[in-house]
Amino acid sequence: MASSTARAQDSSSNFASGPGTYLFLAAGVGLPLLRDGSEGKNHFFRTADSGLSAVLLAEGLKRLTRVPRPDTGERDSFPSEHATAAFAVATMESDFHPREAPLWYAGATVISLSRLWEGRHRPLDVLGGAALGFATARLELSRNRGLLLTPWIDGRSAGMMLTAQF
Fold first, then answer.
1. Phi first, then psi: what are they for 95, rounded to 5°?
2. Where are the chain's structural domains?
3. Which residues pair with residue 149 across a beta bridge?
4. Nearest CA to 50 among 78, 98, 102, 85?
5. pTM
6. Cα-based angle 101, 57, 137 (whole degrees, multiple of 5)
7. Listed residue (64, 85, 84, 71) closest to 122, CA to CA
8. pLDDT per residue as tens digits for the range 24-64
């Protein structure tokens, strides 16, 4: 019985750490286009911007801190990018759809915990990633324009522009 329970947890954490993460992020970024009406494009770009900004910040922190992973010793453990991206998306979607906040945060928590269950991170890596994702999304929501992605319209064409402000 114990081995079947362990296999089920392994299977669940493998899914949450892999395909489940991608499905969660795709849903968080893509669903606004399908259900948020006239705000759909704005919510799509703002969520994508928050996630991208948070992951870029996490990558920078990984290169600065060089904390070894518990399973491989590779020096890229802090912060967990899975937790960072999941909490950035969960925070954005929770702001756009407050009644769904428990579901979005539960999904982000399961993804984050899966990184511990898989032995890829330590608790501090996951907590740091979750805090970074949450904080980046809150910063995104406090601004009129995106952190990295800005709409661009010149009369003949329109698109998104990648920007950086210091």
1. -70, -40
2. 2-149
3. 162
4. 85
5. 0.86
6. 25
7. 71
8. 999 999 999 999 999 999 999 999 999 999 999 999 999 99
